[in-house]
Amino acid sequence: MKRWGKFKTVKERGEWVELLFMAAAGSRGYRVLKPWGDSLAYDVGIDQGAHFLRVQVKSTGCRRHSGYYCQLRGGGRGTGYDLGRVDLFALYIIPTNVWYLVPGAVILIPNPMTAIVLCPETRPKCNRYKYEHYREAWGLLAKSRRDLSRHTNR
Known about the structure:
Oligomer: single chain
Distance between the termini: 41 Å
Largest sheet: 5 strands, mixed
Structural class: alpha+beta
Strand order of the largest sheet: 1-2-3-6-7
Radius of gyration: 15 Å
Number of helices: 3
Helix content: 10-25%
Order of helices and strands: HEEEEEEEHEH
Number of strands: 8
CATH class: Alpha Beta
Number of domains: 1
């Protein structure tokens, strides 16, 4: 059985992926905080002393053509996310064990995206693979909200 198939619900899988993210970030020296409950728009906080980042963790195993389809929906209509509540998206491709750390501004500006396709197994070409420079971009966790907001998808 596939390791991501052991879970009875998507929520259980999401909790497992959040743990993976927290362990990966912690092993790189980042101070990780987990909010109590599910009422916030973000899953994990990164405390860098002078600044604090709000990270929304998502995962996918859904293969679509040459990549993996990753839904970015939160509660309610549309994405349910905005830059006032999420600074960074941590997107985990389960079958390939690859992380993409994408600034919230890339996903949310000018119009919030509800899904993207990430291509960790194919050779990057053209504009289709525009998220590849966010693959394993753990250094973005050291950036401020202001620095991350300068990244856009325009």
